[in-house]
What we know:
Layout: E1 2-14, E2 17-19, E3 25-29, H1 30-35, E4 43-48, E5 54-62, E6 69-72, E7 84-94, H2 95-100, E8 104-106
Parallel strand pairs: 1-8, 2-6, 3-5
Antiparallel strand pairs: 1-7, 3-6, 4-5, 4-7
Amino acid sequence: MWITRFKSKIHRATVTEANLNYVGSITIDEDLIEAAQIYEGERVQIVNNNNGERFETYVIPGERGSGVICLNGAAARKVAVGDVVIIISYALMEVEEAQKFKPIAIFPDENNRI
């Protein structure tokens, strides 16, 4: 049997941009995605602490060290610049692996730096 398990998260990042006129996704500072072991194109869930929205999109690496957290396309309507979000990735695992697996959580500061 396979289960979907919490793999990693970027906890309480601040949205720096919302770009409605882009073809979907979330752009995340490459330092953050590396630290959280999230990969380009990976599906992630976004939880907006300010308005309660929960939605899914995929990751695009942003400029390293920029602190960028930019929701693109339709997802831009679910946030406002300055909102605090949690970016969560999940993985399919066999039960035995899931029982031993240790997820990663990173906690950026108010400028989205680790």
